[in-house]
Amino acid sequence: MTQGLRALKKQQTRQAISDTATRLFLERGFEAVTITEIAAAAQVSKMTVTNYFPRKEDLALDHHEEFAACLARTVASRRTGESALDALRRAFRAAVERRDPLVGFTGAPFARMVTESPTLTARLRDLHDRREDALAEVLAADTGATPGDLTPRAAAAQLATAHRTLFQHAVDLTLKGFGDRKAAAALNRAAQQVFGLLEGPLAGYAVR
Predict the structure, then answer these.
(1) Percent of the chain having pLDDT more than 90?
(2) Domain with 53 in it: what CATH number?
(3) What is the pLDDT of residue 1?
(4) Which domain holds residue 191?
(5) Which of 191, 192, 195, 206 shows the shortest CA–CA distance to 83?
């Protein structure tokens, strides 16, 4: 019970810091806000902030670990008879249906804050790269690829680029003023087009 309460308290503290940071970033822009100011507004020490969030960017991109791992996790848990492409397409559609921030449903103020920050846009590119690397590792392991076989890396690059393209499209739609419902419809159409381009080379790749 004590451990459970301690874990809950840590989660609440982490969430409070994240919420405070996001509010300040949205009000003043990511680059203008310091860790010291976030700590003061959240009524915690600067060390507490950095213990939970070692990088300032992580305060804004709070779901960075999940974002980097989600494609690999989807492929690793794909259904019997399902290819990597089909699993990722199915998961993407489900994410659009629930308006998941991991596919770009962030709201216009947040999307604008990220796109206007050189630091955050660089961090987002890094997370996209990490996501591709993780996917390549899973594909290599699941297909029994030999060392030096570039097929898993090439497949991961194509699949990750599809998601990167769709994520940016979601951001663009948001910044153009599309509401979630209209953006979801447009994103589903775009996904059909983008994933369709991969049907030829990847339709039968990494089938479980």
Answers:
(1) 93
(2) 1.10.10.60
(3) 54
(4) 64-202
(5) 206
Q: Which of 177, 53, 30 is nearest to 113 (CA)?
A: 30
Is 30:113 a contact under the CB 8 Å cutoff? yes
**CATH code of the domain in which 186 resides:** 1.10.357
Contacts with 140 (C-beta within 8 Å, 6 or more apart), sequence order: 149, 152, 153
Asked if residue 68 and residue 55 are part of one domain, the reply reads no
User: What CA–CA distance (Å, rounded) separates 104 from 128?
Assistant: 13
| 159-205 pLDDT per residue, tens | 999 999 999 999 999 999 999 999 999 999 999 999 999 998 899 99
Same domain? 71 vs 54? no
SS3 22: helix
How far, CA to CA in Å, does 201 sit from each of 148, 180, 195? 20, 32, 11
pTM score, two decimals?
Answer: 0.91
Q: How far apart are the first and last CA of the chain?
A: 41
Structural domain contains residue 207? no
> Quick one: pLDDT at residue 5?
83
Residue-wise pLDDT tens digits, 22-69: 999 999 999 999 999 999 999 999 999 999 999 999 999 989 999 999
Question: Do 53 and 131 sit in the same domain of this protein?
Answer: no
